[in-house]
Structures are given as C-alpha cells and as structure tokens.
Amino acid sequence: MKPAPTSAHVVIPSHSSAVSGDDAATLDMVVGLIASGRFTNERIYASLDQTDGPAILALLDELDVIDAEKYDAAVHAPMKKATFSSQQSAKKGKLFEAVSGLIMDGIRCFKVEKNVTTTVNQLDLLVRMEPFAKLIPAFNEWGAHFVCECKFHETRFDGDWIDQLIAILVAQKASAGILITKKAASGKGRGGSIATKLQIYAVQNRVILLFSRDELRECAKNRTTLTEIVKKYVNTLAGIPELLTE
C-alpha cells in the first residue's frame, strides 16, 4: 500500500502559458509564506497587475501628438479642414480604445474582448472575469463580465454618458462598467450631480467607475490599475466622490 501524501498541492497557473514545475507549490509552502509575512496583500496585487507601463505610456504620448496637431492648409492641402478633423477624431478614438484595452488586459483577473457587436449594442470592450478575480473581494459582486466604454471628446465630461453606459449594462446583464474619458468629471458644480447619479445607480446594483486619460497615465507609471479600480469601486458604493477638476 502506498503511503498517504503528506501535503496537498496547490497549482498556481501562469497568465499566458501552461503550468510548469516551478508553478507548483505545496500547501505547506503557502502557509509558510503567509506565516512569514512574505505572502502579503501588496504582493497579491502586484502579481495580478501586470500592466505594461512603457507600452501604454508610448501610446498615450502618440495620442497626445495626434491630439495637438492643428490643421494647416499649407501642410494638409488638398485635404479640407472638415476631412482632417474627421480623420483626426477617428485616429484618436481608435488609439484611445487601444490604450484602454491594453491597460485592462494587463490585469490577470480580466480577459478583454475588443469591438464586440451584440444584437443591441456595439461595445468598445467586453471584459470577462477570470478565476483570479476570486482573489479580490471587491469583484465578488461583479458577475461574469463587465463593460468598458471610451469617450475621447473635446467637451467637458457629459453626465449623459453615464446614463448611456447604464443602459448598456442593463442590456448586457452586467452589474459593473468602467467609463474612460479624455477629461475627468468635476467635483464641483455639475460634478456634484454626477457623483449623486453614480451613487443612485450603485444602490440599484449598477456600478460605474470613472477613469480619465491622466489617471490612465498615472496607473501606467505606477502599475496601480487594479488598486485604483478597487478603490474607486469602494468609494462609489460608499458615496465618496473623488474631487476632480475639469
């Protein structure tokens, strides 16, 4: 008779490759790590957030260059100004979606699908929750997926974008969404009503998190996307508005 095993084995899969021998750890080892203080929340977050900061920052720099370009008849002729503006807007929108997709794809809890067409909507990003999401308590109420929409508009933050995303969440049977915009919502004036709107929807189990272009840049620099998502989720549920200026 074979002797009983002395310890169970927990297999920790890598993000993008098959499990190797180095990926297997005994339960005793995991317990030992926790007891030693080396298995910390910070290490869990760092392991799950694999944001490719340099690639994202490079795309944001490219986006800034395109955004800053002005029509010059001497340079762009025979192209008309209206055509230039249309093409510029299309380039910025596509690049902003690429940045958003890349930063979401860096989170090992997520599986990103881009430009998804449903029977009722065209989604910028449909994000499926992966098994690693179970390690983050804040994601327990998110269900199987969420929707991420991108708005690279020159105008200030429009509260109607929130209502539009809520309608998409209802149609897609999703409880959470992320709205990424060029400009941040203000914490003053109209921003107060936006914060109230977010909390009202949160009470109805529809949570929307707001990210601006500048916040994406900070997340890429510091690899804090996952931390910021959790922070924003808790603040939205608790009705704590983030005081941002336009």
Structure, described:
The chain has nine helices and seven strands. It is of the alpha/beta class and 246 residues long. The strands form two sheets. It has a five-stranded mixed beta sheet, sandwiched between helices. Strands 1-2 form a two-stranded antiparallel ribbon. β6, α7 and β7 (207-212) form a beta-alpha-beta unit. α3 (53-68) runs antiparallel to α5 and α3 (53-68) runs antiparallel to α8 (213-222). The relative contact order is 0.11. Residues 4-23 have low confidence and may be disordered.
Reading side by side through the largest sheet, how are the strands ordered?
3-4-5-6-7
Low-confidence stretches: 4-23
Helix-strand topology string: EEHHHHHEEEHEHEHH
Q: How many DSSP-defined strands?
A: 7
Brief descriptors of the model:
two-stranded antiparallel sheet; 9 helices; 246 residues; alpha/beta; single chain; Trna Endonuclease, Chain: A, domain 1
Tell me briefly what this model is.
The protein has 2 domains: 9-39, no CATH class; 53-238, 3-Layer(aba) Sandwich (Trna Endonuclease, Chain: A, domain 1), CATH 3.40.1350. Helices cover 46% and strands 17% of the residues. The protein has helices at residues 27-36, 41-48, 53-68, 73-76, 81-105, 160-171, 190-203, 213-222, 225-238, and strands spanning 9-11, 24-26, 110-117, 122-129, 145-151, 176-181, 207-212.
